[in-house]
Amino acid sequence: MYGVWTPEQVATAEEPVLARTPEGALMRRAAHGAAQVALRMLAEGGPVVGTHVVVLVGAGNNGGDGLWAGVELRRRGVGVTAVLLAPDRAHPAGLAALRKARGRVVTDVEEGVAAVGRADLVLDAIVGTSGRGGLREPAPRLVAAIGCSVLAIDSPSGVDPLTGTVHDEAVTATETVTFGARKPVHVLNRARCGLVTLVDIGLGPELPDAPVRVLDAVDVGRAWPVPGPGDDKYTQGVVGVAAGSAVYPGAAVLASGAAALATSGMVRYAGSAAHEVRAAWPEVVATDHVADAGRVQAWAVGPGLGTGEDGAATLAHVLDAGVPVLADADAITLLGASSDLRARAAGNPVLVTPHAGEFARLVAELDGEFDPAADRVDAARRAAAALGVTVLLKGNATVVAAPDGRVLVHPAGSSWLATAGSGDVLSGVAGALLAAGLEPWWAGGCAAFVHARAAGIGAGRPGAPVPASHVRAAVPDAIREVRAAALAAS
Ligand SMILES: NC(=O)C1=CN([C@@H]2O[C@H](COP(=O)(O)OP(=O)(O)OC[C@H]3O[C@@H](n4cnc5c(N)ncnc54)[C@H](OP(=O)(O)O)[C@@H]3O)[C@@H](O)[C@H]2O)[C@@H](O)CC1
Ligand SMILES: [K+]
């Protein structure tokens, strides 16, 4: 697990470190780390001596990092051109050092565009943690001229460092090198950051508890329920799946199957697709109504449920059952439309798993601002607090927010998971984890991780769509992977 801190928290942590280190030392540490990554990237194309790097230098300390990195690259035989976007405000010490190291300094935009066109690597040092809004002129013209790899210094310029959002023009980096701590942009907008390298500049002891955390394979593998010698089908947790319909039984079959593959606990199914579920998954005990389903340790409710009276009655029944509940799809629409159902859920171990559209319906009747397009971490955190349930907001970066303020982000590598039925698989996996005893925040985080890995495995080679049934089929391999990681780390 690693932490993610806001730009403000990082700036606060920097203060005491700046105060006890010689002037400029922190920036030199950061710049050294950036130069190391740049040299590695250049070396991928052959010898670095004689290559040409262009540094796009903004008005603040981010530009200072870029200039000092340029100084180190000069010492390694790399040709360096610094293009100053705000010539009067470029970091004075960094600029003087680059000139001394015989780096070329350009202030004319046309000359800068020509240099960018000839570069082997561009360092984006336009703006870092103080950046707000899209790129300002003349940065867009220079960025548009890039035809080579880009290393973003701290964060890709034009992408909001706190929220990862992009409004206008922004840099798309091949890689990003960041300092002291990862910031939200690095997990919320992987597509713009590329591979992220963290350089230690000694902030660790000064950082508060991380407001956002990211699970790794070892965390997930350790948390995954593994049966011991004394376990049987009941002790691993029985999950009930209340999903599907006679018209669209696919959701029920996908969710029940995913639940059966996720843990060794038993799966019960209750709903109008009992026949189809039984045919596809003989190990699932299927009945027509939740009232006849028998005892379960958690319910997964919603996919294909319908949003009419029957669906509402089923949701009310499972919310009153006194066990953890995973609510997805139609169950989310029902919750959004009924204060009575929301009251039954509030304060209980309930995990809701909306995509953007379902999230809008979920919060439609609540007071306050919930805008995932502006800040998805903040929106999920507020919704969880207002509803008294754990919210897993699906998307390219999945956010899991608990009502007590804890937030997990799972940065997915691609958007191929946004496919029909994919959410049903996630429901089944998360429901099985709830039944096995994981609390909703962990169940959501572990399910999102394994779901994304299963999509990667199910797709085979990257770069192509993966249908939900392939995601489901790959769940065991994804579990094997995280368990192997946990065993290797123990
Ligand atoms: N403190 C330290 O020692 C360390 C700091 N470190 C480094 O410092 C960075 C933070 O530096 P920082 O605070 O100086 O701000 P920074 O991100 O360079 O930007 C400020 C300038 O950008 C401008 N600007 C704003 N938005 C813009 C846009 N969209 N497009 C274009 N321009 C825009 C804005 O202009 P203004 O609004 O003032 O006109 C302002 O002048 C941090 O990311 C890390 O790299 C590391 O070296 C570790 C040690
Ligand atoms: K930058």
Automatic annotation (TrEMBL):
Residues 216-482 form the YjeF C-terminal domain. Catalyzes the dehydration of the S-form of NAD(P)HX at the expense of ADP, which is converted to AMP. Together with NAD(P)HX epimerase, which catalyzes the epimerization of the S- and R-forms, the enzyme allows the repair of both epimers of NAD(P)HX, a damaged form of NAD(P)H that is a result of enzymatic or heat-dependent hydration. Bifunctional enzyme that catalyzes the epimerization of the S- and R-forms of NAD(P)HX and the dehydration of the S-form of NAD(P)HX at the expense of ADP, which is converted to AMP. This allows the repair of both epimers of NAD(P)HX, a damaged form of NAD(P)H that is a result of enzymatic or heat-dependent hydration. The gene is nnrD. Pfam families: Carb_kinase (PF01256), YjeF_N (PF03853). PANTHER family: ATP-DEPENDENT (S)-NAD(P)H-HYDRATE DEHYDRATASE, ATP-DEPENDENT (S)-NAD(P)H-HYDRATE DEHYDRATASE FAMILY MEMBER. It is an enzyme of class 4 (lyase). Keywords: ATP-binding, Isomerase, Lyase, Metal-binding, Multifunctional enzyme, NAD, NADP, Nucleotide-binding, Potassium. (6S)-NADPHX binds at A251, G304, H355, D424. Homotetramer. Residues 10-209 form the YjeF N-terminal domain. Coiled coil: none annotated. It catalyses: (6R)-NADPHX = (6S)-NADPHX; (6S)-NADPHX + ADP = AMP + phosphate + NADPH + H(+); (6R)-NADHX = (6S)-NADHX; (6S)-NADHX + ADP = AMP + phosphate + NADH + H(+). This is ADP-dependent (S)-NAD(P)H-hydrate dehydratase. AMP binds at K394, G395, N396, A397, T398, G423. Belongs to the NnrD/CARKD family. Its cofactor is K(+); Mg(2+). Binds 1 potassium ion per subunit. Its EC number is 4.2.1.136. The keyword Mitochondrion does not apply.
